[in-house]
Amino acid sequence: MARARYRGGNYRRRSAGSRVILYATVTAVALWLIAPFAWLFVTSISYQKNLLARPFTPVPPEVTLDNYRMILGLVRFHAEGQAGKILTSMWNSLVVAVIVTAVNIVVGTTAGYAYARFRFPLKTLSLFALLFTRMLPTIVLIPAFFLVFRALGLQNTLTGLVIAYASFTLPFTVWIMKAYFETIPGDLDKSALVDGCNRFQAYCRVVLPVSGPGLVAGGAFTFMLCWNEFVVAQILNTKPGTTTLPPVIAGMNGQINIDYSVIAASGFLGALPAVLLVLLFQKYMVQGLTAGSVKG
Amino acid sequence: MKTRRALSESAVAWLFAGPALLAIGLVVVFPLLYSLWLSFTDVNLLRATGPAIELFDLRIPLFRWIGARNYTQVLGDPLYWDSLWRTLYFVGAFVIEAAVIGLAMALVLNERFPGRPLMRSLLLVPWSLSRIVVGLLWIGILDFEFGALNGLLLRAHLIDGAIAFFKDGWSALNVLVSVYMWNQAPFATLLFLAGMQSISEDLYAAAEVDGAGYWRRLWYVTLPALRPIVFLVLVLATVNGFLMLDLIYVLTMGGPGYDTTTVSWHGFKTSFTFFKFGPGTAILYTLTALCLLLTVVYHALVLGRFEPEG
């Protein structure tokens, strides 16, 4: 990229003094962003007794993988009942997040396309409704889900979670994809139509293939929301083995007899997939999210 | 020909948008209306009989209509008003912190320095964490016994005894604000950065010619150009502030006493700890009404300023 294109009033050579200030603030921001998460990792490979030791040592005197062994069920320990749910719940989280993401990509993307390209009756009204469902407190829906799922026998099932999660992720996906499709020139579809495609073919064969970044942004964001969701899973799936990772970690946190270092290990392990996914696709996500300016 | 085409276009549009709108209708609009109904009824979860919507084998109970009694009961409870004032403080403090820190980080990341792409990636780390993990890792830093911050301050002899951040209600509430800000400010930064990149370089060059230093350029060029984004950040942060729940669950459980009980936590507890769905949904609906109001504002902002063609 051409260096001259960088923006922000910093195109002139910097003085030594302002350079020091810049690097100091950059370091401060970097520490602020990453040090807390890095410390979670450090605690997860430490013994609790060293965390409690005073004077405090930022570099752990001993390093251990015991905390990870405990939560993965490789060694026996007094609280293995609670900690042993980690792997099952991670699997549940994965299943729910993948299915919801797939549904979102298929259904949400086509709807986003409709909003970006067509004029149709009730468009403005349904768009406003969509916006409102995005801003809605999800929690207000949960009593209804609770009663309806009880009647349908969907409590404590992953199907129930998939349905509930689709409710609050779909409006986001539609919105992100609408914003993305608006950045693709409409002439592209028009020329496909002229070449004899129908609307659906133009969408599948011409528009979708150039929509990779938007799809990645919408998909990764949906996956992240589902993977991290806590409140809905905590309320709807209370039976052991049926819930996702965040309620299990929160549950361990509430236990007095589990060391913080063990909980930190499960927290770090649980955070890793979403963090890696976001870092991997950050370029596209930043584009998609800022274009759709979503609720974070 | 022309009319046929216009007709078929809206039909095609509905085919494209239909599945998503149908799904959203079923899983959002219906539960939303049903919850609204529940807020006007006397919900007894143990009773199996009574009026109900019956569809095939499905039986969705409707319970007994009691008018606005849930609302009068909820609004007559000083706990509701206390938590509303607390929520307003929480939201105000959170919005200011998130906007100020978000803007400050954006100003730093908008400068040119080696490693800037890496820094922009790091920006997403706090934001991509589950709030449960966010709470958890801040316990590791703030805990009275093993917290790293207490450890560092003690070691540097800046304090004589460890600070109990969560023992005092006022301190616990402010810790919640700051931790939530740590998680959410990066998103504001992303929006600010996107806005800064669309400011014309010529404006800065002109300001420079006029002899404007860094702060004057910030005040007279950057900030005015960012005004729509500032509004956007404020509205989104306000909604997020009103709805925050999961951090309270890991960090304070609404305590000590009721000192960190916000309206959403009050509604959550009433609904799902005490299983009083009637008053619970009434509390949550007062929040929903606020969010509807904010949506109108957001709608005017986003559609009015950014997408005049949308």
Detailed description of the structure:
The complex is a heterodimer of chains A (296) and B (310). Helices cover 70% and strands 0% of the residues of chain A. Chain A has helices spanning 16-44, 48-52, 66-71, 80-83, 86-117, 123-135, 142-152, 158-182, 186-194, 199-207, 212-228, 231-236, 245-253, 260-280, 282-292. Chain B contains 13 helices and four strands. Chain B has one domain: MetI-like (MetI-like fold, Orthogonal Bundle), CATH 1.10.3720.10. In chain B, the strands form two sheets. Chain B has a two-stranded antiparallel sheet with strand order 1-4. A two-stranded antiparallel sheet of chain B has the order 2-3. The radius of gyration of chain B is 25 Å and the shape is globular. The interface between A and B is large, with 111 and 117 residues.
Tell me the layout of helices and strands.
The complex is a heterodimer of chains A (296) and B (310).
Chain A (H helix, E strand, L loop, with lengths): L15 H29 L3 H5 L13 H6 L8 H4 L2 H32 L5 H13 L6 H11 L5 H25 L3 H9 L4 H9 L4 H17 L2 H6 L8 H9 L6 H21 L1 H11 L4
Helix pairs in contact in A: 1-14, 5-8, 5-11, 6-8, 8-11, 8-15, 9-10, 11-14, 11-15, 13-14
Chain B lengths: L1 H37 L2 E2 L9 E4 L2 E4 L2 E2 L3 H7 L2 H32 L6 H7 L1 H5 L2 H12 L5 H8 L13 H29 L3 H9 L4 H30 L2 H6 L11 H10 L4 H30 L4
Antiparallel strand pairs in B: 1-4, 2-3
Notable traits:
heterodimer, A: mainly alpha, 15 helices, 70% helix, B: 310 residues, two-stranded antiparallel ribbon, 13 helices, 4 strands
Give a short synopsis of this structure.
Helices cover 70% and strands 0% of the residues of chain A.
Quaternary state of this entry equals: heterodimer
Largest sheet of chain A, in brief, is: none
CATH first level of the largest domain in chain A: which class? Answer: Mainly Alpha
Principal-axis shape of chain B equals globular
List the secondary-structure elements of chain A in sequence, H or E. Answer: HHHHHHHHHHHHHHH
CATH homologous superfamily descriptor of chain B: MetI-like
